[in-house]
Amino acid sequence: MTGAFVVFKTHASASVGLGHLHRCFALGSALAAAGAGVELWVESGVAAARARRAGFAAREAEPGELPAGGRADVIVLDGYHYDAALVMEARRRGRIVVAMEDWPPRRLPAHVVLNSGAAPGDAFERGAPDTEHLLGPQYALLAAELATAPARAWTPAITNVLVTLGAAANGRSLADLVRAVRTEAAQAAVDVVLGPFAVPDMRALRDFADLRIHRDPADLFRLMRAADLAVTAAGQTMLQLAACATPTLAVEVHANQTRQLATMAGLGAVIDAGPWEGAVGRTLSAAVRTLRDAEARMRLGTAARQAVDGRGAERVVATLSRRLQGTLAIA
């Protein structure tokens, strides 16, 4: 990838969270490590500032704005509002176009379509004759430090629990999860992570005097590795926890998480705590009860790490390098 120039188009907000932006960071970092130049085109000043703090060149751009023809070797599109027409226009301007997808899948005419939430055996219709699909959690785009296998000690009892619902969770929803966890793990210390878009009214959490509350922590992976058990939404954070081998109960908060949650649960990598409406009651408490056994937590954490080994970005970079070499051969 040495000398190639890659433009990412994505966004982040209270409604969509940080998952799109963070997986672009992960792939962008892997591409930069392979010698490529990387620039992020985002749709808000907040997203641009986060990208710059992460070390990337970034600019604000309109949703339909693309780099001029010939400027970018690779254009990566990560957003539900980037449709087939925009993908086709990107193909006219870049040598390789990557579309990142979740669920339900769309028939996008990109050169590479990445869907880490799909099951490895899922079949997708190609959007173009040369479309290549990269499917399954082995392609999860995570920070490079998560490629190192964690050292895990499986304590006899649950002593530390991590609870988070993503970038925009509110205090009441988090309190409902903490209450359900405490029903079965009353003595556990609980770390609650609030994302940058979380609403400021945290009064609902004040019922729990001993909570350790972290807002947009820089050391999130340390908290993940320290947890005996985690409760989270079934998005990007669930995949990060899997790479940390953290036994995880995952809640479906948005419909686009349905397939990813089913895939990970099918691999024995997480426990599906159900949709948000039902997870705050008996379902979640019962799931915590099953994981009071250390061997059950060890099996779950081990399967999670096997499913998500933190090397997804490396695999995608290898694919893009191969595809770019193919375009040079044709030229």
Report the major sheet. Answer: 7 strands, parallel
Give the number of DSSP strands.
Answer: 13
End-to-end separation in angstroms reads 17 Å
Number of helices: 10
Q: Which structural class do the helices and strands define?
A: alpha/beta
* Overall 3D form: globular
Roughly what fraction of the amino acids lie in strands?
Answer: 15-25%
Mean pLDDT: 90
Cα Rg? 20 Å
Helix proportion: 25-40%
Order of helices and strands: EHEHEEHEEEEHEEHEHEHEHHH
Regions with pLDDT < 50 over 5+ consecutive residues? none
Strand order of the largest sheet: 3-2-1-4-5-6-7
Characterise the protein shown here.
The structure is a single chain. The chain is an alpha/beta fold and 331 residues long. The protein is built from ten helices and 13 strands. It has helices spanning 19-33, 45-53, 84-93, 171-184, 220-226, 236-243, 258-266, 276-290, 294-307, 312-330, and strands at 5-10, 37-42, 57-60, 74-78, 96-100, 112-115, 132-135, 160-164, 189-194, 212-215, 229-233, 248-252, 271-275. The radius of gyration is 20 Å and the shape is globular. The two termini are 17 Å apart.
Q: Can you give keywords for this protein?
A:
331 residues, alpha/beta, seven-stranded parallel β-sheet, six-stranded parallel β-sheet, 13 strands
Summarize the structure.
It is built from ten helices and 13 strands. The protein has helices at residues 19-33, 45-53, 84-93, 171-184, 220-226, 236-243, 258-266, 276-290, 294-307, 312-330, and strands at residues 5-10, 37-42, 57-60, 74-78, 96-100, 112-115, 132-135, 160-164, 189-194, 212-215, 229-233, 248-252, 271-275.
